[in-house]
UniProtKB/TrEMBL annotation:
The chain crosses the membrane at residues 21-42, 48-70, 91-118, 156-181. It comes from Alistipes indistinctus YIT 12060. Keywords: Membrane, Transmembrane, Transmembrane helix. InterPro entries: DUF975. The lineage of its organism: Bacteria, Pseudomonadati, Bacteroidota, Bacteroidia, Bacteroidales. Pfam families: DUF975. This is Glycerophosphoryl diester phosphodiesterase membrane domain-containing protein.
Length: 211
């Protein structure tokens, strides 16, 4: 692990990006949690209905949250609840990527849980790449993500692991703390992606052309 990928470094970058922007970030996070909660509540009605609602709706909103925090980190843009729905503008392409990532991860998980987790980290940059390269197909973005994450899956795992303490504290507050934790995590992931682009010699374009 290089210094730039250390969880403390990435978290500090995320915190600095959020400085002075916590209020709109928390409001956006609240809307995100409400929409996600609606999808989860459907699981009590019907498991298939929940799966459809999650893959076709809630997961798209989650990508919108991802993009809102990415824009905050790279452009200093204030998060807005409306940004959660931005991925719906390219709905078919986004849903296609969601379904592919879901199916690939599920198939690996059916073999063994650990390979499924590893693959989930391999695919984790897919939606950043998809947005940054509008000409790419979902399959190309997944391929590019795997190549970019080669040798960096542990870096992202350690970053995710570093938030466990914060997650415990958020749980103690009956979940209210997650309104702050979610944008903090997503902004740290944005910092990870931007660092990954700088540190790796593999770019989305070269990843696809190398196939």
């Amino acid at each position: 692990m290089t210094e730039n990928f250390r969880p403390t470094v990435l978290r500090n970058q995320a915190y600095e990006a959020l400085r002075g922007k916590w209020t709109p970030a928390v409001v956006t996070s609240l809307v995100f949690c409400i929409l996600l909660g609606v999808a989860v509540s459907l699981s009590r009605v019907n498991a298939l209905l929940y799966l459809i609602a999650y893959l076709g709706g809630a997961s798209i909103v989650a990508i919108g949250m991802l993009y809102a925090c990415w824009d905050l980190f790279t452009k200093g843009t204030l998060p807005e609840a409306g940004a959660l729905f931005a991925p719906f503008k390219q709905y078919a392409r986004t849903v296609g990527a969601v379904l592919l990532v879901f199916v690939y991860t599920l198939l690996w998980t059916l073999l063994l849980v650990i390979p499924g987790i590893i693959k989930a980290y391999s695919y984790s940059m897919t939606f950043y790449i998809l947005r940054e390269n509008p000409e790419m197909t979902a399959g190309d973005a997944i391929t590019a993500s795997q190549k970019m994450m080669d040798g960096h899956k542990m870096d992202l795992f350690l970053l995710s692991l570093s938030f466990i303490g914060w997650a415990i504290l958020a749980s103690i507050t009956f979940g209210i703390g997650y309104l702050w934790l979610i944008p903090y995590i997503y902004t740290a992931y944005a910092a990870f992606y931007e660092t990954l682009k700088k540190e790796t010699s593999v770019t989305p374009a070269t990843s696809v052309s190398a196939e």
